[in-house]
Amino acid sequence: MDASVPCFWRCGMDKRFEGSSLDRQLPCEWQHGADATVLLVCDDQQDIAIVRKALSEAPLRLCVKVCANGPGAQDVLRRCLDDQARTLPDLILLDLQRADAGAFEFLKQVKDAPDLRAIPVCTLTNGDDDLGREAYAAGANAVVSKVGTLEAMGQILNAIVEFWFKTAKRYYV
């Protein structure tokens, strides 16, 4: 795999990422030779590391961008819509927490926007059934429970990648 493909990037000015491997801004050209692009909306560095590691081993070359919160991710999508040179993500992975109203608001905004609603949004939860029902009601395309091991999470994420990028037709591309 081309070393330039995993173009991990973070948005927002979240100080928790300062000095970490996520604290680098790459140009917003998403592709960098990737087969598909993923926007990961998550504020937990351990979860981000697990998802990044699993996606780096996916059967496709993925460009992954990380935003710490819904408002930051919404800003990225808005900039991509405003600038014809930028490409929208092919998939959004949205980490949902019970107390995070911003994530639900982001999900609703994506699904209400005509130019964004076709982007599949897969939510990652802690297994809370009520949270999953709320996510589906807000427009999530899938709700997936996070699991404790890297290997198990890798299998889940690879299944997501296989489905959205190999099985499902992407008419919005």
UniProtKB/TrEMBL annotation:
<feature type="domain" description="Response regulatory">
    <location>
        <begin position="37"/>
        <end position="161"/>
    </location>
</feature>
<feature type="modified residue" description="4-aspartylphosphate">
    <location>
        <position position="95"/>
    </location>
</feature>
<dbReference type="InterPro" id="IPR011006">
    <property type="entry name" value="CheY-like_superfamily"/>
</dbReference>
<dbReference type="InterPro" id="IPR052893">
    <property type="entry name" value="TCS_response_regulator"/>
</dbReference>
<keyword id="KW-0597">Phosphoprotein</keyword>
<dbReference type="GO" id="GO:0000160">
    <property type="term" value="P:phosphorelay signal transduction system"/>
</dbReference>
<protein>
    <recommendedName>
        <fullName>Response regulatory domain-containing protein</fullName>
    </recommendedName>
</protein>
<dbReference type="InterPro" id="IPR001789">
    <property type="entry name" value="Sig_transdc_resp-reg_receiver"/>
</dbReference>
